[in-house]
Design brief:
Layout: E1 3-8, E2 11-16, E3 22-26, H1 32-41, E4 45-51, E5 57-68, E6 71-76, E7 81-86, E8 90-95
Antiparallel strand pairs: 1-2, 2-3, 4-5, 4-8, 5-6, 6-7
Length: 104
């Protein structure tokens, strides 16, 4: 059995192939909810790694539309539709930063 290690947004994620198991380790001071709120306020796109209720992990590029309680609604560019996710099931949340280059 092979293992894959990923480090996203101060979290360690260990994924075991051929199994639906994972280990998530969260460092103190990081909060997915705060990152989502900041991205929503800045109108910023994010790359999201998410584990659904069946244990499937997916990566998506999304734009946060609103946050309500333990869930948040996004526009998913993978599905081209609005989706609702559970905040506690987010494995990684990475803001997309586009830098502009000036040509003189």
């Amino acid at each position: 059995m092979s293992k894959s290690l990923f480090l996203f947004d101060q979290k360690l994620l260990v994924v075991k192939s051929n199994e639906r198991s994972y280990t998530k380790q969260k460092k103190e001071g990081t909060d997915v909810r705060i990152n989502l709120i900041k991205c929503m306020e800045r109108n910023q796109l994010i790359d999201l790694m998410y584990m659904d209720s069946k244990g499937n992990i997916s990566q998506r590029r999304v734009k946060v539309l609103k946050i309500h309680g333990d869930t948040f609604q996004v526009f998913c560019f993978k599905r081209n539709a609005k989706r609702t996710f559970i905040i506690d099931s987010v494995l990684a949340c990475i803001p997309i930063i586009h830098k502009e280059i000036k040509v003189v």
